[in-house]
Amino acid sequence: MHLSSYPVLGLLLPIACVATLYERAEQLPASTSYDFVIVGAGAGGTVLANRLSEDPGTTVLLLEAGPSNLGVTDAIIPMLPQGLAVTTYDWNYTTTPQPGFAGRSINYPRGRLLGGSTSTKSQTPWLTLVQATKNGTAMQDSRNEKFVPSADGHKTTGQYDPSLHSTTGMVSISLPGYPHPFDSRVIETTKELSKDWPFNLDMNSGHMLGIGWPQQSIDTSSRSSGATAYLAPPIHGEEEPARPGKPAFRSVEYTTADIPTGGTSTGPRTVVSAKKEVILAAGAIGTAQILLLSGIGPQKQLSALGIKTILNNPSVGANLTDHPLLSNLFYVNSNDTFDSITMNGTLAAEDIAIWNATHQGPLVDSPLAHLGWARVPSNPYGPDTTAGPTTPHYEILFANGFLSTTTPLPSSGHFMTIVTALTAPAARGSLTLKTSNPFEQPNINPNMLGTDYDLFLMESAVKSVQKIAAANAWKGYIIKPFEDLAAATTPAKLKAYIQAKAATIFHPACTAAMSPKGASWGVTDPDGIVKHISGLRIIDASILPVIPSAHPQAVIYFLGERGAALVKQKYGIN
Ligand SMILES: Cc1cc2nc3c(=O)[nH]c(=O)nc-3n(C[C@H](O)[C@H](O)[C@H](O)COP(=O)(O)OP(=O)(O)OC[C@H]3O[C@@H](n4cnc5c(N)ncnc54)[C@H](O)[C@@H]3O)c2cc1C
Ligand SMILES: *[C@@H]1O[C@H](CO)[C@@H](O)[C@H](O)[C@H]1NC(C)=O
Ligand SMILES: *[C@@H]1O[C@H](CO)[C@@H](O)[C@H](O)[C@H]1NC(C)=O
Ligand SMILES: *[C@@H]1O[C@H](CO)[C@@H](O)[C@H](O)[C@H]1NC(C)=O
Ligand SMILES: *[C@@H]1O[C@H](CO)[C@@H](O)[C@H](O)[C@H]1NC(C)=O
Ligand SMILES: *[C@@H]1O[C@H](CO)[C@@H](O)[C@H](O)[C@H]1NC(C)=O
Ligand SMILES: *[C@@H]1O[C@H](CO)[C@@H](O)[C@H](O)[C@H]1NC(C)=O
């Protein structure tokens, strides 16, 4: 398979249709035709590229907009000083003003390098939470998961259920490898508040609710990403006729783009063709944008921008959904927090040197120490959004330091963060094109906290965190809440605090939803094939019809595995 890891931006070309092309051809081999052309090397694309190229007779081109992950320290060390730097490794997106956030726009990170968002330095860790199906069936995939020891080699008995996990898959998963001063207090909380927050030995058992130890995609001490897991091992047919009446999309054009976004390109343009299929895996933002630019989407929107509609489908870009997050910050009575690292460049450099020399120390972990999942007992706002009584409405994440994208890091002090994030929001937003320039970011409107129900869920989550902070288990440790949380003493102030400080946990999905075959809505069939189009499939977060009430990374890897199996089956590939 061929891998292009220099900046490209893809556009689909309908067969027999001339379009504007942007390209940088010289680095790719002369061949302009492959069995499969995959756009986007994130969670979905890396799995597909790996699995489809298992057959030596099958040619695959994987196009990625960002650079290689190799040697990118930010993508390798699980915990680095917080703050997602806007670099060539990120798309630097900004949302439209969010009414649920009192009109604020927020920064909207998306990975732009091999591995996509699985490679980016993240504020939250990489989890393998997999329960996402309607009937509670765990979507654990033994081809995906490889459980490995923790960095410090500690005994993990009682911290997970080994019988539920595979040790032979591709993505390495481990429990934390560096202890936190409050670990025993978290466990104590599960006893003291056992009704709200029971201890959960393993959230991937199909029973998600409660607090437990996080399982993260960390290969003992380094981030395990789609790129390290599915592309790292050396990467090394017949044409399906277009069905009559269906437009066929089997070509992709690409070029060198200005970095990160907003420019134009004068570079040479390349068109590559797929003998079998083009597979979009550019993520919930990128895939919908490419479809719209290629004339697949709501006709009114496309016409207004001078884009010729090939397929009028109002579902493209509709229903963008994400998980809103809020960082609840507390002063603590400890000197052993990661604030010592984030506030002190000298110590950070020392810890990086330790990681570099020994693969030990505080940087082996993400900032996440523990996590928990819970439901609200009832809600006054209408139908429940969860899949059933064992599915959470929200989650909490304990971090041993000051972790926020909306409140600036103080210059001194020691903190704990208990993040609250909604996992079953009702609000749905949209993705639309701003211009017909493929280098311009689209209008990204996840409609965060866009319903009273969502706000109610977030208020309930914060109240639960306030209850935890007041529990005996935290006496002598938590000193007091930080500024705006401290001020959130009335319902109005609590609402103001949430609207002023909430952000995203980076899980956009649902912009090219799958729906049953023959349904009047939706973008793909259940196998990812784009409805009413020939030669085009989508395998990434955009095809989820509903946002999972869990962290999505493992779900997208699973989609990749399933998608690859379906493609192989269709074309008789081994
Ligand atoms: C900062 C951050 C933290 C996260 N933390 C967690 C977590 O702790 N746990 C968890 O489960 N999930 C987490 N996620 C979410 C998870 O990473 C995503 O849900 C998952 O990676 C989505 O997979 P995907 O294949 O849909 O898209 P991505 O992994 O985003 O991959 C899309 C790829 O396509 C490329 N691309 C886009 N447009 C084009 C184009 N026009 N041409 C060429 N290439 C293009 C992108 O550069 C990218 O490499 C996090 C995400 C971010 C951004
Ligand atoms: C990121 O986007 C912001 C606002 O859209 C812009 O001001 C800034 O220059 C961009 N950063 C980079 C590195 O392009
Ligand atoms: C529920 O999961 C089981 C186990 O995978 C599966 O056999 C069954 O078809 C699923 N039921 C529904 C309604 O999806
Ligand atoms: C949005 O999703 C819902 C199902 O969750 C669906 O009924 C509706 O048709 C979708 N909207 C569009 C425009 O596709
Ligand atoms: C933290 O360090 C300061 C300064 O050295 C010291 O006064 C304080 O007692 C320490 N606190 C704890 C909880 O160890
Ligand atoms: C920063 O870290 C260095 C190295 O550990 C240490 O010597 C120094 O005292 C720290 N500075 C502060 C202000 O804590
Ligand atoms: C990491 O270790 C290598 C040698 O193993 C050394 O060359 C390099 O300078 C180190 N980098 C840092 C940041 O310590």
UniProtKB/TrEMBL annotation:
Molecular function (Gene Ontology), one example: oxidoreductase activity, acting on CH-OH group of donors
Pfam families, A to Z: GMC_oxred_C (PF05199), GMC_oxred_N (PF00732)
Residues the record lists as binding FAD: P552, Q553
Signal peptide interval: 1-19
Family: Belongs to the GMC oxidoreductase family.
Domain annotation Glucose-methanol-choline oxidoreductase N-terminal: ranges: 34-324
Alphabetical UniProt keywords: FAD, Flavoprotein, Glycoprotein, Oxidoreductase, Signal
Annotated ranges, domain Glucose-methanol-choline oxidoreductase C-terminal: 425-560
Co-factor(s): FAD
Name of protein: GMC oxidoreductase
PANTHER family given in the database record: GLUCOSE-METHANOL-CHOLINE GMC OXIDOREDUCTASE (PTHR11552), GLUCOSE-METHANOL-CHOLINE OXIDOREDUCTASE N-TERMINAL DOMAIN-CONTAINING PROTEIN (PTHR11552:SF201)
Catalytic center residues: H507, H551
SUPFAM superfamilies the UniProt entry points to: FAD-linked reductases, C-terminal domain, FAD/NAD(P)-binding domain
